[in-house]
Design goal:
heterodimer, A: alpha/beta, 9 strands, B: 299 residues, alpha/beta, Rossmann fold, seven-stranded mixed sheet, two-stranded antiparallel ribbon, 14% strand
Chain lengths: 210, 299
């Protein structure tokens, strides 16, 4: 059987689970890129280049980093903000996992039950999932691969995600910072960000202010 | 544990949608004397629900959520039915169990929480309809009472299977004709409050949800008693206006009629003498707390 490649979609209404196509999770010290196991050190550069080359790179922080469950969560959030500033990338939160009724505002949030709406609306071509619980990330990653052409990257604190186009495992504050440093280094070496100009969303209790 | 549990990470706070920022600012978590009067100003108490317009169950839900003394340390166990449509809208932990299994799931959960958090009162509350509580799940319901499990069972009694089109349930009144029970109910409404007391519940209340003060008192009593003594049971009349042929505005009248003298839901409470004494003490404590809070504000 040919090696399955976890490429951006749109693949099918119901894309196969990458695991069922023979994609395995990376071991510690490794990452995966389009389903291939690669050295974690190489992954920093490949993923940083992918993000810098995207027109609408976007980070989707999930509840594990949006909410300050502990000091570590707060520090991770800071590191994510630094990465977003360095790229630059949009930050769109996945605040929780409830289906949103009556409808979601795809400009300011993403929901694991219909993540394609946010991807389509903002024309996102590369995204990072970070701080999202495994099962919800798997659900969202499959829907995105099924219906959109977005390149998905999972910064996973556990064992990684087969259904993402690229995935780190055991992510922590240091690793996020290292990714940020790689982005900065590539930029200093002349790799330009292809991101379209944008204004980071800003919300208050009263509503959206930017 | 209190509101400190629901803080946002500072670095990402300004991208969080307004409703979450609002919840962090106004939630009643950590306030033991929260009440139904907080409805309308607290995000965690169901800002919007997915039930039919005017559904008394939505009122019941709001009163219950505003009455539980420690929402941050409470887990609801629900079952299939209209109640399960609301839980995704609620800022309180909840488990959706297999139909009828809710009291069995709650038993295990309560025991596990006791082991995992020996120093914290973790309240477990079962919230299910009459089909799950009295018909399909009666075995699980009663066995948990026999075993003296420390949690509260709340039954939303709408006297039929509303979610599936109006089939006859054990709690339906005798003679009632519904869409899926055209011959009319042949036997009496099951007297579950009385059965619950006989089966070992230490506090039992049966009432409608027309009066928020009463509902609040019954729910708080049930939770407090479940912590200290054992199982408690609250049966709330939440008529399904669709299935009994009423309009959206008529739910409240229906409940008032049902609780009038001679009605099926005249409020009744059963409790042991020890529980009566315990609740008196709890009332005195609450009064003292409120008095102190009032004095602090005026000072």
């Amino acid at each position: 059987m040919e090696q399955y490649v976890v490429k951006p979609g749109p693949e099918a209404f119901l894309p196969p689970a990458a695991a069922s196509m023979g994609i395995v999770l990376p071991d510690p010290g490794e990452a995966h890129y389009e389903g291939r196991i690669i050295d974690e050190e190489d992954a920093y550069e490949q993923i940083a280049r992918k993000l810098l080359g995207a027109k609408v790179p976007t980070i989707f922080p999930g509840p594990l980093v949006l909410w300050k469950w502990n000091e570590k969560a707060g520090k991770k959030a800071e590191a994510i903000r630094e990465l977003a500033n360095a790229l630059p990338a949009r930050l769109i939160p996945m605040a929780d996992y409830r289906p949103k009724y009556p409808k979601i505002d795809p400009e300011v949030e993403i929901n694991p039950n219909h993540p394609n709406l946010t991807i389509w609306h903002n024309k996102i071509d590369a995204c990072i999932f970070v701080g999202v619980h495994c099962h919800q990330a798997n659900l969202a990653l499959k829907i995105i691969r099924g219906g959109t052409d977005c390149f998905t990257i999972a910064l996973c604190a556990q064992a990684g995600h087969e259904d993402a186009c690229a995935s780190f495992r055991d992510i922590n504050v240091e690793k996020i910072k290292k990714l940020t440093e790689t982005v900065k280094r590539l930029k200093s070496e002349g790799v330009e960000s292809q991101a379209l100009p944008f204004t980071q969303i800003k919300m208050t209790r009263a509503g959206r202010v930017a | 544990m209190s509101k400190e549990k629901i803080q946002l990470s500072e670095a990402l706070e300004d991208i969080m949608p307004s409703e979450y920022q609002e919840m962090v600012a106004t939630a009643t978590f950590g306030n033991e004397d929260r009440s139904w009067k907080d409805i309308g100003s607290s995000k965690e108490l169901i800002e919007q629900h997915s039930l039919c317009a005017g559904c008394p169950e939505s009122i019941a839900f709001r009163y219950i959520l505003s009455s539980i003394p420690a929402p941050e340390d409470t887990v609801f166990v629900g079952s299939t039915g209209c109640t399960s449509l609301v839980f995704p809208m609620v800022g309180v932990q909840n488990i959706h169990s297999l139909f009828g299994n809710q009291n069995a799931v709650a038993s295990g959960l309560k025991r596990a929480l006791k082991v995992r958090f020996p120093d914290v009162n973790k309240d477990v509350i079962v919230l299910a309809g009459d089909g799950a509580t009295v018909d399909i799940g009666l075995d699980m319901t009663m066995q948990s009472w026999f075993r003296q499990e420390n949690f509260t069972t709340i039954c939303f009694d709408n006297e039929l299977y509303a979610n599936t089109g109006g089939q006859e349930s054990g709690l339906m009144q005798k003679g009632f004709v519904s869409k899926m029970a055209p011959m009319g109910k042949k036997f009496e409404k099951v007297r579950l409050p009385e059965i619950a007391f006989e089966a070992g519940c230490h506090y039992v209340a049966c009432l409608t949800v027309s009066k928020p003060n009463r509902v609040e008192k019954a729910i708080r009593n049930a939770v407090y008693v479940a912590r200290e003594f054992g199982p408690t049971y609250v049966q709330l009349y939440t008529p399904c206006i669709l299935e009994i042929g009423k309009q959206s505005m008529e739910g409240l009248d229906e409940m008032k009629d049902a609780e009038a003298i001679g009605g099926r839901f005249v409020m009744k409470e059963f409790m042991t003498d020890e529980v009566k004494e315990f609740l008196k003490e709890k009332d005195a404590e609450q009064k003292a707390r409120k008095k102190a809070a009032k004095a602090a504000v005026s000072a």
